[in-house]
Specification:
66 residues, extended, mainly alpha, 56% helix
Length: 66
């Protein structure tokens, strides 16, 4: 495997597990969304959605000069 400079594969490994629980309506909404947009990897989809929201919040909370 080619090694890209600046990327440490050990740091990028996913080793920490978190569990989520959804109620029936939430799970139905996720299932409908995944079917409609042909999302096969729900784990990746949920991870990206959560990280996107976190990064957006960080950007909003960033101190501004003026």
């Amino acid at each position: 495997m080619l090694k890209r400079p600046g990327f440490n594969n050990e740091r990028l490994k996913r080793v920490h597990r978190k569990a989520l629980m959804f109620n029936t309506l939430e799970l139905d909404a996720i299932n409908i969304y995944c079917r409609r947009y042909k999302i096969k990897n729900r784990s990746k989809f949920l991870r990206e959605a959560i990280i996107t929201k976190v990064l957006q919040q960080f950007e909003q909370d960033h101190p501004k000069l003026f």
